[in-house]
Specification:
The chain is of the alpha+beta class. It is 43% helix and 23% strand.
C-alpha cells in the first residue's frame, strides 16, 4: 500500500513539473490530446498486467499508478488556471485598493517580505512585496494600496526563460503588488489550525 501511495505522489509531482512547460494560453488544446494519450497508456498497461506473471504485473500496476498520479497532478494545475482570475485584469498597471488576508507564512528576505494575499470573495491570490517592518503574519487582514502588476517570465543567468507566470499560477497567484501602502485591519483571520501550527513553529525557532 505504501508503494502505491508513493507512486501516486511521485506521479503527481511529475505532473506538476510537466505542467509548468505549458503557458496558460496553450492549456486547452494540449489538455485534450494529452489526457487521451495518458488514458490509453493506463488502459494498455493494465491490460498487459493481466497477462503477465505476478511480479511483472505488479510492476506494470505501479507504472499505471504513476500515470494516474501524473494525470491528477496535471489536472490540479490546469484546473487552477481555469479559475475566474480575470476580475482585476482591466486594472493591471493601475493604482488599486485591495483588502485581503495573508494566507501563507510570510517569506522574509534580506530587504523585504513577500506576502501571499487572498482578496475577499476571490479564488485567486496576489503576491505582495512589502517592507520588512512592520512585521505581518499569517491570518492578518490587510488593506493594500499600490500598482497592480501581472507577472512576467524572465531570463535566468543561463540565458533560459523561466516560466514565472506558471510557477506562480500553480499556487493560484496571478497578480503582484510591489511595495504598496499597507494597513493592518485585523489579526487572526486565517485558518485557526494553521495559525496554531505556525505559532508553535515560531516559538521553537
Amino acid at each position: 500500500m505504501r508503494n502505491f501511495i508513493r507512486c501516486v505522489l511521485g506521479g503527481g509531482a511529475l505532473g506538476l513539473f510537466l505542467a509548468v512547460f505549458w503557458s496558460p494560453n496553450s492549456i486547452e488544446p494540449v489538455a485534450d490530446w494529452f489526457f487521451l494519450l495518458l488514458f490509453l497508456l493506463i488502459a494498455l498497461t493494465l491490460t498487459l498486467a493481466w497477462s503477465l506473471s505476478d511480479r511483472e504485473s505488479r510492476l506494470l500496476l505501479y507504472v499505471a499508478v504513476i500515470f494516474i498520479g501524473t494525470a491528477l497532478g496535471l489536472g490540479r494545475f490546469w484546473l487552477s488556471l481555469s479559475h475566474d482570475h480575470q476580475d482585476l485584469a482591466f486594472l493591471a498597471e493601475q493604482k488599486v485598493t485591495i483588502q485581503g488576508v495573508v494566507v501563507t507564512e510570510p517569506d522574509i528576505r534580506d530587504t523585504s517580505t513577500r506576502l501571499v494575499i487572498k482578496p475577499e470573495t476571490k479564488d485567486f491570490k496576489i503576491l505582495v512585496t512589502a517592507p520588512l517592518y512592520p512585521v505581518y503574519q499569517y491570518g492578518d487582514k490587510l488593506e493594500l494600496v499600490g500598482k497592480l502588476q501581472v507577472p512576467e517570465n524572465f531570463a535566468t543567468d543561463q540565458e533560459r526563460e523561466f516560466d514565472y507566470i506558471n510557477y506562480l499560477a500553480k499556487d493560484d497567484i496571478y497578480y503582484q503588488l510591489y511595495q504598496p501602502q499597507v494597513k493592518l485591519l485585523a489579526r487572526r483571520q486565517g485558518n485557526w489550525l494553521i495559525d496554531k501550527l505556525l505559532t508553535f513553529k515560531t516559538a521553537f525557532l
